[in-house]
Amino acid sequence: MSKEFDVVVIGAGPGGYIAAIRAAQLGKTVACIEKWKNPAGALKLGGTCLNVGCIPSKALLASSEEFENASHHLADHGISVENVQVDISKMMSRKDGIVEKMTKGIEFLFRKNKITWLKGHGKFTGKTDAGVQIEVSGEGTDGASSEVVTAKNVIIATGSKARHLPGIPVDNKLIADNEGALSFDTAPKKLAVIGAGVIGLELGSVWRRLGADVTVLEALPEFLGAADQALSKEAAKQFKKQGLDIHVGVKVGEVKTSENGVTIAYTDKDGNAQTLEADRLIVSVGRVPNTDNLGLESIGLKANERGFIDVDDHCATAVPNVYAIGDVVRGPMLAHKAEDEGVMVAEVIDGQKPHIDYNCVPWVIYTEPEIAWVGKTEQQLKAEGREIKTGQFPFMANGRALGINKADGFVKMIADAKTDELLGVHIISANASDLIAEAVVAMEFKAASEDIGRICHPHPSLSEVMREAALAVDKRALNM
């Protein structure tokens, strides 16, 4: 007799573990299948995001920024510091400690909510009158090599893995993906990065601050093409000033490794053959969904040609009582999007009527300055033929930004020309990841730019720039 659960979640990343917790809060019997092992061989919850993604990368970004501030910016405050040193191994230990604390925290939440952690790989084996059958192999829960469990409802939350390029073997030593790039033992003198997306820019920034000469090669003709053009233009200017050497419109050719490092042949945007030599190479060209070896066909399901599982607006698949969320379905591969989908599906299973407005899912790049936006870009709205009005306000006119020596960047707001409804908010600044939340709230409530302009903001604070940008939509900013 197999174990039976109301809900079985496959994958314990941000989408999976949040889905499991919400389902348990709603009184369901819940199990979550997870096979992740850390380098020491210990099974851990949290998935890619917590173990080798969002959390460790932000820890290293914070540490490297502290080093850069001490090395180059404390003098602006009248503080003299000489012979600043960095201990990479201690920095990595701090990062690992944060990850360990967070994974232990999820284990605690599982115990608190009486969620069963099924340790191993989950694979569908078929359906019965009792529900969906899933084989858990690897560790087992009782020391056995495998067991089969029955689920009335299943949530597939298996996440994604780094996309690798053909002919460029990743060993996570000389050539690394996001996982290896978070664990370098020393800062390379010369670092090459293929891909100027979120991961490439964040990890490139970490190692540049720690002493690497960083060159970024991007295949797309535009830098940060998904962002508003005003944002991408400002970001390119700031990164160039910092020393990130970014080339767009390139075509990468043969990559060779040797004892001395890596040699990358590529063609630049003008069609000229170029060669880049580096000590190490980071490949960050996107991610692909983890939908292989799930046994989807055994329950009448299959991934599409791109490897994703097709779902409706409530993340339901074509098979009744089987749902999929996060990086394995359409939409941006963002941890917070996966979390919201996990909560939504748990509530759908409970008979509720939840809804996600995907236009109100914010994007963040944790560089310095940070880049964040929600809603549509000016170029998207113009392509739709929408009549709009915009307001922009710089942080250089903000007292708090000047006081903390973070005066680069601006807030740009876009509103409907007739109704004044907010259609998009775009920020490049310190703490943009926090500031964008106000815009998300406003857009969820269908606010007008005037609404933000009339709300009292604390002075002095970075948030005042949000208000000034809103006022600028009607050309009445107070401090410009």
From TrEMBL:
<keyword id="KW-0285">Flavoprotein</keyword>
<feature type="binding site">
    <location>
        <begin position="158"/>
        <end position="160"/>
    </location>
    <ligand>
        <name>FAD</name>
    </ligand>
</feature>
<dbReference type="InterPro" id="IPR016156">
    <property type="entry name" value="FAD/NAD-linked_Rdtase_dimer_sf"/>
</dbReference>
<keyword id="KW-0547">Nucleotide-binding</keyword>
<dbReference type="GO" id="GO:0004148">
    <property type="term" value="F:dihydrolipoyl dehydrogenase (NADH) activity"/>
</dbReference>
<feature type="binding site">
    <location>
        <position position="58"/>
    </location>
    <ligand>
        <name>FAD</name>
    </ligand>
</feature>
<dbReference type="GO" id="GO:0050660">
    <property type="term" value="F:flavin adenine dinucleotide binding"/>
</dbReference>
<dbReference type="InterPro" id="IPR050151">
    <property type="entry name" value="Class-I_Pyr_Nuc-Dis_Oxidored"/>
</dbReference>
<keyword id="KW-0676">Redox-active center</keyword>
<feature type="domain" description="FAD/NAD(P)-binding">
    <location>
        <begin position="5"/>
        <end position="342"/>
    </location>
</feature>
<keyword id="KW-0963">Cytoplasm</keyword>
<dbReference type="InterPro" id="IPR036188">
    <property type="entry name" value="FAD/NAD-bd_sf"/>
</dbReference>
<keyword id="KW-0520">NAD</keyword>
<keyword id="KW-0274">FAD</keyword>
<dbReference type="Pfam" id="PF07992">
    <property type="entry name" value="Pyr_redox_2"/>
</dbReference>
<dbReference type="InterPro" id="IPR006258">
    <property type="entry name" value="Lipoamide_DH"/>
</dbReference>
<dbReference type="InterPro" id="IPR001100">
    <property type="entry name" value="Pyr_nuc-diS_OxRdtase"/>
</dbReference>
<dbReference type="InterPro" id="IPR004099">
    <property type="entry name" value="Pyr_nucl-diS_OxRdtase_dimer"/>
</dbReference>
<feature type="domain" description="Pyridine nucleotide-disulphide oxidoreductase dimerisation">
    <location>
        <begin position="361"/>
        <end position="470"/>
    </location>
</feature>
<dbReference type="InterPro" id="IPR023753">
    <property type="entry name" value="FAD/NAD-binding_dom"/>
</dbReference>
<feature type="binding site">
    <location>
        <position position="286"/>
    </location>
    <ligand>
        <name>NAD(+)</name>
    </ligand>
</feature>
<feature type="active site" description="Proton acceptor">
    <location>
        <position position="459"/>
    </location>
</feature>
<feature type="binding site">
    <location>
        <position position="122"/>
    </location>
    <ligand>
        <name>FAD</name>
    </ligand>
</feature>
<feature type="binding site">
    <location>
        <begin position="195"/>
        <end position="202"/>
    </location>
    <ligand>
        <name>NAD(+)</name>
    </ligand>
</feature>
<dbReference type="GO" id="GO:0006103">
    <property type="term" value="P:2-oxoglutarate metabolic process"/>
</dbReference>
<protein>
    <recommendedName>
        <fullName>Dihydrolipoyl dehydrogenase</fullName>
        <ecNumber>1.8.1.4</ecNumber>
    </recommendedName>
</protein>
<dbReference type="GO" id="GO:0005737">
    <property type="term" value="C:cytoplasm"/>
</dbReference>
<keyword id="KW-0560">Oxidoreductase</keyword>
<feature type="binding site">
    <location>
        <position position="218"/>
    </location>
    <ligand>
        <name>NAD(+)</name>
    </ligand>
</feature>
<feature type="disulfide bond" description="Redox-active">
    <location>
        <begin position="49"/>
        <end position="54"/>
    </location>
</feature>
<feature type="binding site">
    <location>
        <position position="327"/>
    </location>
    <ligand>
        <name>FAD</name>
    </ligand>
</feature>
<dbReference type="InterPro" id="IPR012999">
    <property type="entry name" value="Pyr_OxRdtase_I_AS"/>
</dbReference>
<feature type="binding site">
    <location>
        <begin position="333"/>
        <end position="336"/>
    </location>
    <ligand>
        <name>FAD</name>
    </ligand>
</feature>
<dbReference type="Pfam" id="PF02852">
    <property type="entry name" value="Pyr_redox_dim"/>
</dbReference>
<comment type="similarity">
    <text>Belongs to the class-I pyridine nucleotide-disulfide oxidoreductase family.</text>
</comment>
<keyword id="KW-1015">Disulfide bond</keyword>
